[in-house]
Amino acid sequence: MRRTPSRDRGVGTLAMRPLDPFEDTELVHSWVTHPKSAFWLLQDARLQDIEREYMAIAASEHHDAFVGLHDGEPAFLMERYDPRYIELVGLYEPEPGDVGMHFLVAPTDRPVHGFTRAVIATVMEHLFADPRTHRVVVEPDVTNTAVHRLNEEVGFVPEREIDKPEKRALLSFCTRESYDAAVVRHAVATRPTAVSGART
């Protein structure tokens, strides 16, 4: 099973592997039905519903799913899709190299500072590792202000609100260049300040 190369981002080592709809369904069901995952709109989903959903994703040529690992243990979920065929058909004009994305950090009672940002950075680098990807597209619920702020931190630019069957969404885009610029901004902002008189 192919994995995204591991990387230590200061919160532990993060990596991704393809989701196995037979082995991972019970775990993913516990994540997406948790009250903290309300924006995934699966609060009432049964185990068999989730199994059926990810079996369909595994069979699709336009949609796939990954389990994210934190120090080797499952800790987040990512879905990648082709917006020409999934989710956004007829709602915007796709460009060559567009890739759609959803991600979910596993609910926890012991959040780690900086973890969610480290997760989305891992996701973005996984998507942009494919040279065919020019732009990542997201469509979170318009009321999900926390994810809007996070998306903007990694380079997403909101374009407009759109009406999907299940929600009103904020259509946003992140180009490879915008993400690279956001990485530089973050590195500068988090660089340790030199102590006066310290040897460098």
Automatic annotation (TrEMBL):
Where does the N-acetyltransferase domain lie? 14-177
The protein's matches in InterPro entries, at most eight in alphabetical order, are given as:
Acyl_CoA_acyltransferase, Acyltransferase_MbtK/IucB-like, GNAT_dom
Q: What does this protein do?
A: Acyltransferase required for the direct transfer of medium- to long-chain fatty acyl moieties from a carrier protein (MbtL) on to the epsilon-amino group of lysine residue in the mycobactin core.
Please report the organism this UniProt entry assigns to the protein: Streptomyces flavofungini
Q: Which UniProt keywords apply?
A: Antibiotic resistance
Q: Does the keyword Transmembrane apply?
A: no
What pathway annotation does it carry? Siderophore biosynthesis; mycobactin biosynthesis
Q: Does the keyword Nuclease apply?
A: no
Q: Which SUPFAM superfamilies match?
A: Acyl-CoA N-acyltransferases (Nat)
**Name of protein:** Lysine N-acyltransferase MbtK
Q: Name one Pfam family in it.
A: Acetyltransf_8
